[in-house]
Design a protein that fits this description.
With about 675 residues, this protein is an alpha+beta fold. It is built from 14 helices and 38 strands. A hairpin with a 5-residue loop joins β15 and β16. One of its GO terms (molecular function) is metal ion binding.
């Protein structure tokens, strides 16, 4: 006879505390693998006798695919498989401690119990996650402070700007909020891998390598109707400008609400931030990494070619590019496929740049393999190696004749100031040395040669490679752009072009200068300014030429990335051309947040956000967006009246914090003249 339906006490609070899952707000049990959890249930007769438990996950559970486990009560927890140990029993209820193996498939499980010959009775469902606190798990992270940061922390800082001028902004990962865990589980069930073969896909979900790769594909919309649609056009109609997001929650919720249609729009940091949310949610330690002067080597020759015309305009030729910065992820897990020295941080990149295995996915590439030039190891090490190591070749291109002339090449340009947020602090940490040996050192060049050799590039005849005598010819002059004054949107841009004659005879130089507004990928959008000068430099003379680009000249042309590329192509009479260039990122004006009074759990507290219009014309269409985990639900949007020249606005709103501890409030202010002015404030909430 079938037993009556048992009622289950999942001991949510106690289990969550033991399993570091207290931050999830769920009525369902959420636990980590390789660790015991306790449940109590009633409704079985003579409970401790012949109880058999069944834990199953996925569409067609089976023992062969490790998606089905049946286990009875034993005296001790098993090291290998699933096990149940009796804690206590009374006449009508029984308490059981259930343990899963360290390498169990993660996801939502159905748990049932069978007593004697009766048919199984359902106890309910629970979710099983990776366990970085457990030494047997592939994602085990021995340092507890790092577990706190890379799994439990819902706030992050992403670095941007350019290598001369690093900026940063806050991001709300929000991996424990609302429905995010369920959305992460549905991301896995919508991947191409699952659609093609659900049984095999689910059986691989014990492996962080596999899931990292699958999720790097699913976070971008290419191939699989994934979460975020990329857009690098500078025009974002029909969606949100990528720089306006302040957190992953809104993006993941929108994806679900729309019936899983890709959310418009993202750029690299959006893909990386969303992947951080998903992986932290599932229990894989993950962080965002920003690489400055990041190469996109489309043809896999570890070289990036840039072309300029005679006027110094940067041409859109060839698929290679150098981005002011690029953001990807590192996740922490062992590489049993490669060996112990390749374990630890693994690079994953969800930005759709190049296909890997026929779809837009990238990684996991062992960071150690990248540093050592082991470009033959899985997965996608050559692409990541090029991002931080490619050599740059700058060419003059004559569109009339199709002739290319090498201006110069540089091997120290790419992969600068590689950055991530510090553990437990809002500071920047430089991890460049973890990706490569010191730039310009013999070791660094040896690794580069090793990588070229492994890729079969060293002996190949390369028709575009410069002939030796072209490289040997030394330029007669050198040049650089210096910044004079502040780099702020709303202010004039003052630069100095510094030219120096390196020879002991006078030189005449014709200089063609241009300034273009660009995206952070250095893609040109609008020409802002051009000029040409002819100068004579006495022997060994250095001269400075001031350049002023006024705010009204660039205001209409500037992209929301606030980036300008200035170039000067110097034609030296009877000498070789010299290219001087600089990528400039302008800062937005400041915005200020004040918390008025003490922030206490479940008590209203007022926050004031102040902004002063720094320009001499009115700004309108002002919108303030605010978000912050445990401070407010979702994203608060406030419209602000237009501001006259130099006028200050002060906006007040109320928060009701839901949890004690250090929390971060993120603010994004936009108007018709300034896009996405971001700031954040730490709010210490007390009980």
């Amino acid at each position: 006879i079938a037993a009556t339906q048992p009622s289950t006490n999942w001991h949510l609070k106690e289990n969550a505390r033991e399993h570091h899952t207290s931050k999830f707000s769920s009525e369902e049990l959420i636990v980590r693998r390789g660790q015991a959890f306790t449940i109590t249930f009633n409704g079985t007769e003579r409970p401790e006798q012949n109880l058999i438990f069944i834990a199953e996950t996925g569409p067609k559970p089976s023992k062969a695919t490790k998606t089905l486990a049946t286990f009875d009560i034993s005296s001790t927890a098993s090291k290998e498989g699933w096990s149940a140990v009796l804690q206590s029993s009374s006449s009508n209820s029984v308490s059981i401690s259930i343990s899963s193996p360290h390498n169990a498939v993660i996801g939502r499980y159905r748990l049932s119990v069978q007593s004697g010959s009766s048919s199984p009775a359902s106890l309910g469902t629970f979710v099983l996650l990776f366990n970085p606190w457990s030494s047997g798990d592939d994602v085990f992270m021995p340092n507890k402070a790092e577990c706190e940061e890379y799994v439990l922390e819902e706030f992050g800082i992403i670095f941007a700007g350019n290598k001369n001028h690093i900026s940063s902004f806050g991001w709300n990962f929000g991996q424990f909020q609302g429905d995010i865990l369920n959305i992460c589980l549905s991301i896995m069930d919508r991947s191409l891998y699952y659609r093609q073969d659900p049984i095999t896909d689910v059986s691989h979900r014990h492996d962080p390598r596999y899931l990292g790769r699958v999720l790097s594909a699913m976070v971008n919309a290419n191939d699989d109707q994934g979460v975020v649609l990329g857009n690098w056009s500078g025009k974002y109609e029909g969606g949100k400008n990528p720089s306006s997001w302040t957190g992953s929650g809104e993006i993941l919720q929108s994806w679900k609400k729309s019936g899983f249609k890709p959310v418009k729009y993202g750029q690299c940091w959006v893909f990386a931030a969303v992947l951080t949310t998903v992986l932290r949610c599932l229990g894989i330690p993950t962080r965002t990494i920003t690489n400055f002067s990041s190469a996109h080597d489309a043809d896999g020759n570890l070289r990036v070619d840039e072309f300029y015309d005679a006027d110094g305009n940067h041409l859109e030729r060839g698929a290679d590019s150098v981005w002011n910065f690029h953001v990807w992820n590192e996740s922490w897990f062992t590489r049993n496929d490669l060996g112990p020295s390749y374990s630890g941080w693994q690079v994953l990149d969800a930005t759709p740049q190049e296909e890997s295995g026929g779809i837009y996915q990238c990684g996991p590439a062992s960071r150690y393999a990248v540093k050592e030039g082991e470009v033959d190891l899985d997965y996608d090490v050559p692409f990541v190696f090029a991002e931080v190591n490619a050599d740059c070749m700058y060419w003059n291109y004559d569109s009339a004749t199709g002739k290319k002339t090498l201006i110069f090449s540089k091997s120290t340009e790419i992969g600068d100031s590689i950055s991530t947020k510090a553990v437990g602090r809002d500071d920047r940490v430089d991890v460049t040395r973890d990706y490569k040996y010191e730039e310009g050192s013999a070791k660094e060049r040896d690794i580069f040669k090793k990588a070229r050799k492994k890729l079969g590039l060293e002996d190949k005849f390369d028709p575009t490679a410069p002939k030796l005598e072209e490289i040997e010819q030394k330029p007669d002059i050198s040049g650089k752009f210096k910044v004079a004054g502040s780099l702020e949107v709303g202010k004039d841009l003052n630069l100095l072009l510094v030219l120096e004659n390196l020879q002991s005879d006078a030189k005449t130089v014709n200089v063609n200068m241009t300034a273009w507004s660009t995206l952070y990928t250095r893609r040109r959008v609008n020409q802002i300014w051009k000029d040409s000068i002819s100068v004579t430099l006495a022997p060994k003379e250095e001269k400075q030429f001031p350049i002023k680009i006024q705010y009204p000249e660039y205001q209409q042309q500037l992209t929301t990335d606030k980036t300008i590329q200035v170039t000067a192509l110097c034609h030296v009479e009877d000498g070789i051309q010299v290219l001087v260039k600089r990528n400039i990122t302008l800062d937005n004006p400041a915005i200020d947040i004040q918390v008025l009074g003490e922030a206490k759990v479940n008590k209203e507290v007022v926050v004031e956000v102040a902004f002063t219009n720094p320009i001499d014309t009115e700004v309108k269409d002002c919108v303030l967006q605010v978000e912050g985990c445990d401070l407010l639900q979702g994203v608060l949007e406030l419209r602000i009246p237009p501001l006259k020249a130099s006028e200050k606005s002060s906006t007040k709103f109320k928060l009701i914090p839901s949890e004690a501890g250090p929390k971060h409030l993120l603010v994004n202010f936009s108007c018709d003249k300034f896009a996405d002015i971001k700031t954040f404030k730490m709010v210490n909430v007390i009980n």
